[in-house]
Design a protein that fits this description.
about 0% strand; 5 helices; mainly alpha
Length: about 120
């Protein structure tokens, strides 16, 4: 988590955020891992910490990094399916998805036809 100034988040706050992101958003487990007090008071303290602006900023950075890691795995899986799936349909869909994400999406064409008469009467009296 590179961009946040170290003095803004305490060690426990950094541990809380990292555990929260790693476990999928379970604040109670993250509070326990980050050594906040046990029980309800620990969860409340962790919740208050998560609401502070500098911890929120650190959370956004941590989530961005986690998404980046998962995106690389997802791309690898789609690439693998595109070339190696047993089903030709799965290969086709994976290939289309790769092309879409690379910016080679086919043009969406839709034709809208409106039929009917419109009558407007304005009475100025």
């Amino acid at each position: 988590m590179a961009n946040i100034k170290p003095r803004q988040c305490t060690r426990r706050q950094r541990l809380l955020v990292e555990a929260f992101v790693a476990n999928g958003g379970n604040l109670t487990k993250a509070a326990h891992e980050a050594e906040y007090a046990q029980g309800n008071s620990g969860r409340v303290s962790a919740y208050k910490a998560m609401k502070t602006p500098h911890v929120q900023q650190y959370l956004m950075q941590a989530m961005s990094e986690a998404f980046g890691m998962q995106a690389a795995k997802a791309l690898g899986k789609i690439s693998q399916l595109s070339g190696n799936a047993k089903s030709e349909y799965v290969q086709l869909e994976a290939s289309k998805d790769l092309l879409d994400r690379a910016g080679f999406k086919p043009i969406d064409r839709s034709q809208v036809q409106i039929a009917g008469d419109i009558h407007v009467t304005i009475d100025l009296e």
